[in-house]
Amino acid sequence: MSEETYEKKTYKLLITKGNDPDDQYGFYKERIDSQIDFSYIEYNTEDDDLTDDLFNEIDVIVLLFGLYHNNQELFDELIDKSKEFNVPILLIRFFGMEYILKELEEKADAVVGWNPHCIVDAIKTLVDGENWVKPCDVVEED
């Protein structure tokens, strides 16, 4: 396929934003915006109304684990909506930590760290339906 006939997909992401003392949202934006081969439209939980129409339109809900403790009700609502509207959840670990609450990990369709390539790979896999075995930034134990 030539470059002229190739149409780049634009992903529609709902990103958690809220009480964020460590600026996890800002750091996430820097990471994902650094990927020049990835196009997305952002919706977020502060600037957009969380209507049924929005959930019918988005491709992935991106939960930033660093915001969880200050925004638990919001996370619960997004998890419920993901089930209701069949929207996959991508959970991104707190920057600098590997720990994730098991209950959240079990509700997510994928969990990654802060490697921007891993974030993009996970989004593309969740939306495009390819088989994805594990996050690309996790080292297997011996």
Overview of this protein structure:
The chain has 142 residues and is an alpha/beta fold. It has helices at 24-33, 52-57, 72-85, 102-107, 116-128, and strands at residues 10-15, 39-44, 60-64, 89-92, 110-112. A 5-stranded parallel beta sheet has the order 2-1-3-4-5, with helices on both faces. Strand 1 (10-15), helix 1 (24-33) and strand 2 form a beta-alpha-beta unit. It is globular, with a radius of gyration of 15 Å.
- Across the major sheet, the strand order is 2-1-3-4-5
Q: Kindly name the structural category.
A: alpha/beta
Cα-atom Rg, whole angstroms? 15 Å
What is the first-to-last residue Cα distance?
41 Å
Question: What's the helix-strand series?
Answer: EHEHEHEHEH
Q: Helicity level, as a percent range? A: 25-40%
Low-confidence spans: pLDDT under 50, at least 5 residues? Answer: 1-6, 137-142
Taken from the alpha-carbon principal axes, the silhouette is: globular
Q: Please state the average pLDDT score.
A: 85
> How large is the share of residues in beta strands?
15-25%
Task: State the main characteristics.
alpha/beta; disordered N terminus; 142 residues; globular
